[in-house]
């Protein structure tokens, strides 16, 4: 049983576990909305716009997570300003902001010293380097996501299922959209630290996809996705601990593995029947 | 129109999308308890009229509706891949009354089940919405609108692509609603169906061509003003050629006597 408890004796690993568990639950749950609303592009865009904040934080020597939060706030504010004009959808505004922020971020990295490792950390995450501040931010993101689902979960589900009905009922669409995009952005900030820019979409969509196959109604899907995201985080870290695989990639590969098992199991069950 | 207060009053309504005028200077009133059909060719502004009544599009003119308003969107507007069962869909009709925070209670779910029973769908309460047929989905959406307990109910093409049994059940429910003094306004492109079931009709083609009873609307002269030359009159029955399916059913009915 030592292999089970060993990793927990190290401070670095304990922090990594805490980060992975919180990130897995939050991205898993919110990923259900992203998946069902066809917002995969949103997750991707958020990740790419955040890179600017991360790089600026690197260069100024400040906490990376705060840089990401700043970039996220800037993204939401600019996107909100753009979409106030009815001709710009959220997709379009993200399409404008994404390459701009990403390009700026990559340019700044290229200009800085220690370019390679910084770029790697940004793209694939640095879960073994999380600080206590990162953990506080992750916890705040988890609380925010939980509160949002508690306060407006059923309304957000209604908008996802039947937008014209929600509108007819008098719900304010822009407000609900901004709320959802806001919490997804915050979740992306947390996940960015753990799995990085490139792998973030997998954390949002993978657990949600598996959960969709396992469940028939929405809230069980959300709960399963959160559980699968957490499980992937923990298993991925064990794997990374006992091998040379990086933390972020290991977690994402476990997400993919879980999906393969679920999808394969279902296909098998259909064949047997 | 009776002397009572109108359930729906529309005065000089105009809606424009960009430079294009979709509805122009439309005025009408509907008294409580009426089953009203909104007719007109494709692109006549039928759905836009509903969206204006719901306050979803910016419109010029005056609109008065008896509140609350219940709504049945076109079934194609609903995301069928969303994981939810029929009962869960109906419970959504109760959300505005629940408010934020509160989760639907056991009573709410029981109420939803009773409404599903009204539309003949109680036995499919636990079925995923996406696995239901078009007619069954439409009935579930109708049950959800019933949950809203509107004084006015607006339905967008509720009868299109619906099987005979669903159609009969839905019309029975709608008539029952009218008998309880609720007002029903539905869009349709099926002239014959509208002639059979509606008390009154609004014939639209950007402007309001005519409003009135079947006898008043269903004259060749009035219909031609909405549909142009594509109107078919057979033994006093009418069809519009923009709907080939309907054309054949009208003819078949004729041959059957």
- Tally of separate helices of chain A: 11
User: What is the number of E strands of chain A?
Assistant: 0
* Approximate strand percentage of chain A: under 5%
Number of helices of chain B: 10
Residue share in helices of chain A? over 70%
Radius of gyration of chain A: 19 Å
Kindly report the average pLDDT value of chain B. 85
Q: Give the strand line-up of the largest sheet of chain B.
A: 5-6-7-3-8-9
Description of the molecule:
The complex is a heterodimer of chains A (273) and B (257). Chain A is mainly α. Chain A has a single domain, classed as ABC transporter involved in vitamin B12 uptake, BtuC. Chain A contains 11 helices and no strands. With 257 residues, chain B is α/β, with parallel strands linked by helices. Chain B contains 10 helices and 11 strands. Chain B has helices spanning 46-53, 86-92, 95-98, 106-118, 134-147, 164-179, 191-197, 214-217, 220-227, 244-255; strands at residues 8-17, 20-30, 35-39, 60-65, 69-72, 152-155, 183-187, 200-205, 207-212, 231-234, 237-240. In chain B, helix 4 (106-118) packs across helix 5. The two termini of chain B are 35 Å apart. Residues 243-257 of chain B have low confidence and may be disordered.
Provide key terms for this protein.
heterodimer; A: 273 residues; mainly alpha; ABC transporter involved in vitamin B12 uptake, BtuC; 11 helices; B: 257 residues; alpha/beta; 6-stranded mixed sheet; 36% helix; disordered C terminus
How would you summarize what this structure contains?
Chain A has about 270 residues and is an all-alpha fold. In chain A, about 85% of the residues lie in helices and about 0% in strands.
């Amino acid at each position: 049983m030592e292999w089970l408890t060993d990793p927990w004796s190290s401070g670095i690993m304990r922090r990594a576990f805490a980060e992975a568990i919180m990130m897995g639950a939050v991205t898993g749950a919110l990923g259900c909305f992203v998946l069902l609303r066809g917002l995969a592009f949103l997750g991707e865009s958020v990740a790419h716009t955040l890179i600017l904040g991360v790089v600026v934080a690197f260069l100024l020597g400040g906490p990376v997570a705060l840089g990401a939060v700043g970039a996220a706030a800037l993204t939401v504010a600019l996107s909100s300003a753009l979409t106030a004009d009815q001709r710009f959808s959220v997709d379009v505004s993200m399409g404008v902001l994404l390459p701009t922020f990403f390009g700026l971020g990559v340019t700044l990295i290229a200009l800085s010293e220690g370019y390679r490792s910084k770029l790697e950390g940004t793209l694939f995450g640095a879960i073994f380097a999380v600080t206590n501040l990162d953990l506080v931010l992750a916890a705040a993101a988890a609380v925010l996501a939980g509160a949002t689902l508690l306060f407006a979960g059923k309304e957000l589900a209604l908008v996802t299922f039947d937008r014209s009905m929600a509108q007819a009922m008098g719900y304010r669409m822009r407000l609900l959209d901004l709320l959802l995009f806001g919490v997804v952005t915050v979740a992306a900030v947390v996940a960015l630290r753990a799995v990085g820019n490139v792998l973030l979409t997998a954390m949002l969509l993978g657990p949600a996809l598996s959960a969709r196959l396992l469940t028939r109604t929405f809230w069980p899907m959300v709960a399963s996705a959160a559980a699968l995201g957490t499980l992937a985080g923990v298993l991925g870290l064990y794997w990374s601990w006992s091998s040379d695989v990086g933390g972020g990639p290991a977690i994402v590969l476990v997400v993919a593995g879980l999906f393969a098992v679920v999808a394969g199991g279902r296909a098998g069950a259909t064949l047997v029947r | 129109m009776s002397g009572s207060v109108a359930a729906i009053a529309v005065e000089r309504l105009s809606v424009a999308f960009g430079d294009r005028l979709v509805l122009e200077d439309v005025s009408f009133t509907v008294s409580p308890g009426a089953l009203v059909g909104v007719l007109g060719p494709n692109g006549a502004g039928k759905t836009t009229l509903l969206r204006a009544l719901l306050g979803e599009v910016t419109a010029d003119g005056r609109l008065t509706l008896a509140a609350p308003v219940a709504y049945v969107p076109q079934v194609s507007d609903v995301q069928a891949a969303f994981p939810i069962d029929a009962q869960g869909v109906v419970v959504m009709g109760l959300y505005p009354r629940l408010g934020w925070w509160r989760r639907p209670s056991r009573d709410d779910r029981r109420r939803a089940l009773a409404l599903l029973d009204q539309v003949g769908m109680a036995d499919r309460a636990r079925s995923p919405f996406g696995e239901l047929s078009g007619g069954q989905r439409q009935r579930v959406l109708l049950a959800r609108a019933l949950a809203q307990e509107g004084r006015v109910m607006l339905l967008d093409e509720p009868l299109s692509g619906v099987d005979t049994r669903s159609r009969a059940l839905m019309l029975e429910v709608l008539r029952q609603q009218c008998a309880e003094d609720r007002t029903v306004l539905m869009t349709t492109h099926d002239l014959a169906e509208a002639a059979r079931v509606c008390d009154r009709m609004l014939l639209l083609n950007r402007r309001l061509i005519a409003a009135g009873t079947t006898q008043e609307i269903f004259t060749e002269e009035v219909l031609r003003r909405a549909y142009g030359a594509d109107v078919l009159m057979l033994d006093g029955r009418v069809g519009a050629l923009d709907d080939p399916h309907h054309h054949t059913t009208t003819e078949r009915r004729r041959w059957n006597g």
